[in-house]
């Protein structure tokens, strides 16, 4: 019962930002190409393309489109290293841009706008384990999140609909993710569990609506 209530809360809650379900590719050689796609518990469809550009450098793009016109896209460049015994380490740096909106049915009110994320991400995992070619990995994304949001009767109620306020805020974002993949050599099912913590440097009296957790389910193909 508690689990069902928690899931119901996650799915129905309105947020501007949620943990992203980007792939932890675990690239271990040049020309290693992975395409990952699926859906998440917080309603959205997503896809990631990761490619080993050289023996040490990889590039990655990710996109997510959700309900209420929400979207998020990011690109990153990274360094990867095969540690032996099927273990892989990656470090990425990149930029993300997105849009989100949330409604408050009590007033009613709206909060909407875009945000920018400058981030680094550390990945570690193991690939091609003996049981069903199992892959597993852990990622920690950390970055600077800048938000440009417009509020209409969301934080405060005004009897005149035309009144709106803009908020420009700086935030620290921490986003850990774990992933598991199982299947064949080339095509695998995957499950992602992501969490998020955001600390506001500015305007700390007004809460930034975001989700603390998200789950992704999809397919991962290696070429």
């Amino acid at each position: 019962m508690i689990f069902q209530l928690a899931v119901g809360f996650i799915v129905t809650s309105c947020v501007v930002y949620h943990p992203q379900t980007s792939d932890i590719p675990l690239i271990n050689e040049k020309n290693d190409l992975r395409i990952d796609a699926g859906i998440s518990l917080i309603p959205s469809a997503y896809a990631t393309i990761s490619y080993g550009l050289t023996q040490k450098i990889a590039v990655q793009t990710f996109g997510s489109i959700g309900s209420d016109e929400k979207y998020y896209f990011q690109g990153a460049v990274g360094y990867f290293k095969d540690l032996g015994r099927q273990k892989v380490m990656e470090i990425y740096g990149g930029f993300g841009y997105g849009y989100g909106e949330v409604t408050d049915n009590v007033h009613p009110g709206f909060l909407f706008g875009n945000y920018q994320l400058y981030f680094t991400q550390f990945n570690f995992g193991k690939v091609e384990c003996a049981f069903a070619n199992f892959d597993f990995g852990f990622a920690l994304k950390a970055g600077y999140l800048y938000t440009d949001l417009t509020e209409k009767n969301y934080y405060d109620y005004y009897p005149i609909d035309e009144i709106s306020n803009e908020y420009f805020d700086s935030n620290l974002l921490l986003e850990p993710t774990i992933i598991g993949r199982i299947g064949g050599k080339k095509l695998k099912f995957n499950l992602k569990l992501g969490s998020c913590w955001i600390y506001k440097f500015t305007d700390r009296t007004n809460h930034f609506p975001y989700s603390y957790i998200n789950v992704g389910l999809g397919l991962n193909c290696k070429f």
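The chain is about 5% helix and 60% strand. The first helix runs from residue 2 to 12.
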